Amino acid sequence: MSEHLLAEFLVMLSASVLVIALLSRLALPAILGFLLVGLAIGPHALALVNDQHSVELIAELGVVLLLFTLGLEFSIPQLYALRYRVFGIGGAQVIISTGSVFFISLWLGISWQAAFVISAAMALSSTAIVTRQLSQQAKLHTQSSQTAIAILLFQDLAAIPFLIIVPALTLGSGDQLASELGWAVAKGAVIFLALLTVGRWLLPRIFHEAAQTGSDELFALAALLVALLTAWITSLAGLSMALGAFLAGVMLGETHFRHQIEAEIRPFRDILLGLFFITIGMKLSFPFLLEHPWTIIGLTAAIIVCKAGLVTILSMISRSSMIDSVRAGLYVAQGGEFGFVILALADQHHLVPDALSQQVLASLIFSMLITPFLIREADWLAKKLPSQPWKLDTQQTPEEVVIRASTMRQHVLICGFGRSGQGLGRLLDQLSIRWLALDRDPIRTSESLTAGERVVYGDASHRAILSAAGIERASLLVISFDNWSLACKVINHARSLAPEISILVRCRRSRHLDELIAAGANSILREGDESTLQLANRVLQQLGTSQTVIDELIHQTRNQDYQLLQGYLPGIRLEMQTQQPRRHAITLDANAWAIDKPLIDVKQKMKRGGAIIKTIRRRNRSINAEQADLVLHRFDTVVLLGNQEQIEAAEETLLSGN
Fold it and tell me: How far apart are CA 287 and CA 266, in angstroms?
């Protein structure tokens, strides 16, 4: 590697570190950072990197490893579980999107080869951004998220034939294209069968031997070798390297080495894929953006509105509610990483004019830039839309619920049949206690009914569904899902239908306790606090503590409403959660106002700020903050409980007396 090329790599790495560090503070995905770095240092802006061809050759390996890990994650059981959404909604979205853009492009006078490339690139969305954002917001298991993931899964599958077709578009006539595609499919099938035959026998043995040595380096090298070797074999056959890597991933995805292989490959993939996105950003011309801003803004808006609208309609046709359908549409309304791969492949074969490629590339990038905000505000946007009389909403027909609940008396009504709801149902069965569950996930409901569970499809936040489930005759209502706003809605309806019923609610975050209690919950299972108590129970048992002492400590903590467990000392992730109660320690230096002041006076002065003094640390020992005659000394550490604003006010009081 020449010194010049090394210097250019250092420029890319330095810029990437700075930009991605900044975007991570804003909770934006790293992909956007790499794209912005490429735009800034590329030949159309600062021109800090000129040997773009050498960088592209290395960066292409990132696409190979991306397809390899996609193959590893390819799950036949997941595909089967989501089959109706994957092949129904996902298939329809890709076909309609590709077909619509293709014919519109032809109508605008674009060549049919370029029209196909553009339509394929625009039809796909960003699996990386969507899944990361939904995971961060703990929304991966909602109905709208499952619909979005099903669509993304089909799009990932559709990217494979797109990558085969694009290089074949350089051929002239339709007959030649059909012949070449047929030949490519035949070669792909032969290679797949050959790899499957050899791979199923050879690959598990290779990784078994690598694992037996206990060498992480050997295991990682074996994974890289398999991915790159199969990519090279398919390349020799005239097919995409990405296709070979995908096939190798599929084969290894069925072995028990799958997760370890993915973990070893991931660092290489992320770095090389980052380089690939930098090269994509380099292709974007900054002067072009300034010359055609309204064209790019209009195209970006068209992509978001049309994709979101299409997915919303398809989701509603599949009998999802309006709100869930709109959410799913907003989740997948952007361009995706495979769109960049397709455009880069087309650029190698000169299939799309530069100006048109710039417009499409810029619109895909800006649509991805907007995506995190769309996902965060999807709930608000969906609820702002007017409800419509023609929506296909199965929640308004509770006849099936009435039939299942008609013979039940003094039963437990479970709202939400996820992991917690299913576990509760099985435990109740052990004691022959009757129960009925409501769940609005159609796939889970179908699978549960097939397994003989007493669950029906219905949204418990609808008053008619609760009434049909016999809440007036039930002995207990259990809300097992983790959605406090929806839980409040269920509680309000339950209280109006059955004022005397006992209601138990699962709550993960303590900041929602007041809302749930105000709504009418009798008992709240505080998930995090109960997990802490169970952990303490096990630890004290291992230490030989008497079970009587342990039970008394746990009972006392519960009776005091978990006051002992309230708040925790923050880490880096808490910066964004300014309203979350937490603990914070302040050491009184020589100039602190609170030194030599009675603690009772300090508390009185702090009262308006809202923070609470939980304990005092003095010379490595804890002092009870309830002592009436306690005086604060120099170098005492005061442990506070409160949100960000309250703690800042308390710190100001302790140090300056304000």
Answer: 35
The encoded tokens of residue 111 equal: 């060549």
Q: What share of the chain is helix, strand, coil (3-state, %, to 5)?
A: 65, 10, 25
* Token output for 171: 């051929």
Q: Answer left, alpha or beta for residue 561, where phi above 0 means left and psi between -120 and 50 means alpha.
A: left
What pairs with residue 478 in β-bridges? 414, 504
Q: How far, in Å, CA of 332 to CA of 272, rounded? A: 25
**What's the pTM?**
0.56
Among residues 572, 573, 594, which one has the least CA distance to residue 640?
594
Other CB atoms within a 10 A radius of the CB of residue 375 amount to 25
Specify the residue for token string 């990682």.
220
Q: Which domains does the chain have, with CATH numbers?
A: 65-275+300-384 (1.20.1530.20), 394-521 (3.40.50.720), 576-656 (3.30.70.1450)
Q: What is the mean pLDDT of the chain?
A: 79
Backbone angles phi, psi at 587, to 5 degrees: -95, 130
Among residues 219, 263, 253, 199, the alpha carbon closest in space to that of 70 is found at 253
Q: pLDDT tens digits, residue range 192-214?
A: 777 777 777 787 788 878 877 77
Residue 237: CA count within 13 A, CB half-sphere = 25
Q: What is the DSSP code string of 376-405?
A: HTHHHHHHHSPP-TT---GGG-THHHHHHH
Q: Residue 226's Cα: distance from chain center in Å? A: 29
